[in-house]
Amino acid sequence: MKNEVDLYISSKHIKKYTNRCPLILKETIINFEKVGEEGTIINLFNDHKKFIGKGYYGKQNKGAGWILTREESEKIEQAFFQNKIKAAIINRKKYYHDEETTAFRVFNGEGDGVGGLTIDYFNKYYLINWYSKGIYAFKDDILKSLNNLVEYKAIYQKKRFDDEGKYIEEDDFVCGTRAEFPIIVKENGVNFSIYLNDGPMVGVFLDQREVRKILRDKYAKGKAVLNTFSYTGAFSVFAALGGARKTTSVDLANRSLSKTREQFIINDIDCSAQDIIVEDVFNYFKYAIKKKLKFDIVILDPPSFARSKKHTFSVAKDYVNLLNEAIEITEENGIIIASTNYSNINMDMFKMFIDKAFKNANLKYELVEEFSLPHDYSVINEFKESNYLKVIFIKKLGH
Ligand code: SAH
To answer: Which of 104, 238, 243, 397 could lock 376 by a disulfide, CB 3.0 to 4.6 Å apart?
Structure first.
């Protein structure tokens, strides 16, 4: 049995909750000091003791927990989680039947009714991400639910919260038969090499699936492609397979060289024809401008925040500048693929960044494609921030 606590929302903040925002915020609660340990079930009331919702306490950078139900009589027990996960699986039926794509998101946090929890599928392996100690307190119920619903070779996990150092020592394996890594998954017919036991990033970000596909199918043929913040080179692989004349991948992490080579090799792409450069993107831009290099397609997919030896980068402060660097080395009529997963910036603000950068450069432009999260990354309208991905294809025009 989990502990339960009654918490009261201050009238000042009640609207947020009656508008069905699923996130519990500490500063909106009158008696938050009563909350107890993470994993405690929270019954939320307005200041007239009217029931508003029921959730759990879990500390994330986003908030202090998530509402799970608006039904006062509903119990947060194993069957609750099983029903949510079952509904999510049914919603992903078409992915389970697609032989060309064997990696996708099965359960997407609050979008599927349980904030703080995601489950990804990688060709018969499952990966659970726990975003707080609070949701991790329900581990047994959630594992049992998954066991009742699906067959698998193994389940792995990532604890994405501070577990007082235990995270580093502990293996990410949970149950089943240990995999031999890498495991190979497919995305629209392309191979990806996946490591579920090697740090928080497993080799690919599945949310860019549709962007990679259109890059390959519609844009890459015959083009010189620069992929910045390239990680394992997923965009470069798709560009090469789409017939790009050449790809150049730039990332400052040492691992990116071997990881990107590996992705090329498992897709029978000749590595020697592709450039993989381990360097700070901002240095690379300087070099490219000095050498008057030009690309037909430039991909910008930076992390929301990054610190390198010389630079700190934040999307909010520096994206316009990043775009201006990219504009300089993009051919006229070339395409810049601008992406960000920073949730505090919405699509309209992102378009304003683009507008500002092109005004700075005194150039015209055209927006030619726009993407947000794919169907398996389900989101709810009541919580707009969860639709974090913004990708825009911009055609650079003349003066
Ligand atoms: N675009 C990638 C994902 C990017 S993850 C994909 O499609 O898979 C962010 C990457 O940015 C990381 O690999 C990190 O090493 C890299 N990075 C962060 N700051 C950087 C910088 N200043 N220069 C180059 N790479 C950087």
So the answer is: 104
